[in-house]
Known about the structure:
This protein is α/β, with parallel strands linked by helices. It has 23 helices and 31 strands.
Amino acid sequence: MDNAQKAKVLVDALPYIKKYYDKTIVIKYGGNAMTSEHLKEAVMRDVVLLQSVGVKVVLVHGGGPEINETLDKMNMRSAFVNGLRYTDKDTAEVVRMVLAGKVNKSLVSRINSLDGSAIGLCGIDGNMLEVSKKTEDGVDYGYVGEIQKVNAKAIVNCLSDGYIPVIATIAADREGNVYNINADTAAAHIAAELKAENLIMLTDIAGLLKDKDDPATLIPKVYVSDVPYLKKQGIISGGMIPKIDGCVEAVRRGVRQATVIDGRIEHSILIEMLSNEGIGTLFTQEEFTGGHMSIFQDDKDYIIGTYKRFPLVLVKGNGAEVYDDKGGRYIDLTSGIGVNSLGFCDSGWVSAVSGQAAVLQHTSNLYYTLPQIEAAKTLTAATGYKKAFFCNSGAEANECAIKIARKYSFDKYGRGRHKIITLTDSFHGRTMTTLTATGQEVFHNFFFPFAEGFEYCPAGDAAALEKALTDDTCAVMLEFVQGEGGVKELDRAFVDAVFELCGKKDVLVIADEVQSGVGRTGRLLTSQVFGVKPDITTLAKGLGGGLPVGAVLVSEKTADVLGYSHHGTTFGGNPVVMAGVNAVLEKVNDDAFLAAVREKGDYMRERLCGRRHVEEVTGIGMMVGLKLKDATAAEVVAKGIEKGVLMLTAKDRVRLLPPLNIDMKLLAEAMDVAAAILDE
């Protein structure tokens, strides 16, 4: 190569160097590139060069050939199942010795000898990789670990100090058992946790091939949504499965792209990263531009247009973080409008729901089911109510509560005592009856005739309520915090007046806690915040953790109003949904958990109060409303999406409903973004 050619290479590489400067790249190192001294030297030189131009490189390695060699010397056999090495306890010790000892230290030494700076780590260090025994479809892999969590502090510290972390993929559980971790899988999880720019998998083939025996059939680009089809066709099989699954996992969790490249090609890493040629197979999310815009058109063509959607396609969530189809990451302060009380895909919740689905997904309410009984016992014991009824939504729960109130009055006083008073700015559902119960005129259009027997009273006006409480009134229905009405909490004096007035006239109090219940306000029920106990309480949203459910809790006074044939539901109390309910209650029904909710709510108010565009912060606990000045709620929400934070509106206010278990670090990051927007 003459000087002109060398200069051209450098000029061509410059934009890519700028692109990756100060970005994190995770490289999974394995295959022939580890056994060939010539290739090993080339890979290490590539890594050192990347470090020298400001790229943060994390090197994750296996050591299959070295492990095999050692096992052979010790007359120990090893088998592979679904592309993973079956590992008994003795083999696990050999894996630890070879990977964390011989291979890891050899690589660190090689990098340092080339004027790089590297530190050797393994998954046991700093409890970096939290694992459990891998089980899948009844297959026993022995001491093969499944990663539950990546604690990246040690990695981040190394990178911050200017070192290349070289990571051996072994880990230990809480009992000290050593587990072998597939290096491809480990690299993917680490890349996702670090929000890496790129994940590079070094292999012994050109990439993903349509015909494994023909390099000319290389597939240069794969969308992650195509992977199931490619597996079905047998194009992805054997040892490629964990590699491709790792790429898909990383991309779906926020890594911009993952690439499988041929480690047998000298300097393949540099060719992939710093040239316009690229090699191997690139895995990425669909980009919804051009021909991929069809999802928006399909939605318009095939789904009734009752929602004004944001141009955002969400594909995967974890905790309080959610990712779009382009790999964009967002901190979720919406919880699906208060539904995902434990965030996205909480491991305990997933395990409970999937486990129940595998045993008994549905049966008629003509039979007993254990999950339903368990949920009822937990709710009544925690709240002091007598009995529970389960249905499918908040609107259904409110319909049931209305029926109970009217039948209670009918049984005791006969016909004519059926009026229910609700409050202005209330919201109770979208069925015909609950829509009528909703105290907002904007909803009282088109669908005439509306149900009879509802009257609206201004929230906070005890005198008006007393006047409205006539002899034909059977119940007052209220929300302690009006969510859809603007996240406005009721005045305590007014609440006390409601209970006093209703008590004197034997008028039932129905508390709609569809949005405010199940820990949202720092108590299991918001009525507990106010120190009162309604005759009937309705729950929904956060109760199921993401599954559709409603619940009606009834006091001693109303426990036996409904009897056989008076009410019913086909899907309500479904075993799978109840499993989700029980998983939520197991975590939320805890004093320490609820105390943390209150602390997080206080923190949110402290961070948002006094901002330039904030006139008032309302709500209780982690149910937060922002009354604005010199800005609109829609503008704030739109800017939040641009900056990676999802928020809601409620009438003219911004509404924040984060997952109750959101990590404080994530919450602080979201508050930084929100505060900056509100100060613009």
